[in-house]
């Protein structure tokens, strides 16, 4: 673990970010996280592949945004910077690309700060997606993202941590309202649609992490894009979203348990 690990870390409960890090092959996790990860993995052997599929979807989506000229990214629920971080993909294509990472997990934030020390085009914010105004205010304070220009808002594998009671539609509306025309929104989100019982059982285990997962339908997830234009191929099982090669697509893309989609904010009336 890096020096200066925050003292508020709760080591008595597994953390979603550290369980995810374990599944991605990272080293930033504790025994309590590995135990839960192994328990989930024994119930759903496909889950590690699901997690990697999520990171792959995010990488492909960021590339599409870069091709569209996006050079600034607000990545909320960014996780522990393990394999294929957004800034690596973005700055690999455009060395001037700016990335602000936001996560609720103090371990994810500590590791992000550690890894990004010296990278002046990136910033890290410790905040909760349920406080979008605060995230926007702190992002403005960092001065890395110019809100008058198009940006990419990335919400990969995070909105399912927001229960309906916390009004995810309002949170999304607040974030969309802060973006300039030409901006993009990327969402991947776990679903109950087309899922076997074992996947639904594993979801129940997520109640043991600090944040439980709410599985949603394709229609609900599509609703998070509001009136923005969903780009091809729409909101689909993640491996089906612009695969690098048709041979990358699993025979059962629904097995990965989540939908992914990207939408663009077209100029009203334009
Ligand atoms: C499944 S990981 C996804 C990581 C990364 N976005 C990706 O797709 O590879 C979900 C991340 O969301 C974070 N998270 C969960 N609830 C959150 C909240 N309310 N606000 C901000 N981050 C949250 C977790 O700490 C974790 O790091």
Automatic annotation (TrEMBL):
Record bears the keyword Transferase: yes
Keyword match Transmembrane helix: no
InterPro entries: SAM-dependent_MTases_sf (IPR029063), SAM_dep_MeTrfase_SAV2177_type (IPR006764)
Record Pfam families: Methyltransf_19
SUPFAM superfamilies per the UniProt record, alphabetical: S-adenosyl-L-methionine-dependent methyltransferases
Keyword vocabulary terms for this entry: Methyltransferase, Transferase
Any one GO BP annotation for this protein: methylation
GO MF annotation list: methyltransferase activity
This enzyme's EC code(s): 2.1.1.-
Domain of life of the organism encoding this protein: Bacteria
Listed name of the protein: SAM-dependent methyltransferase
Origin species: Micromonospora vulcania
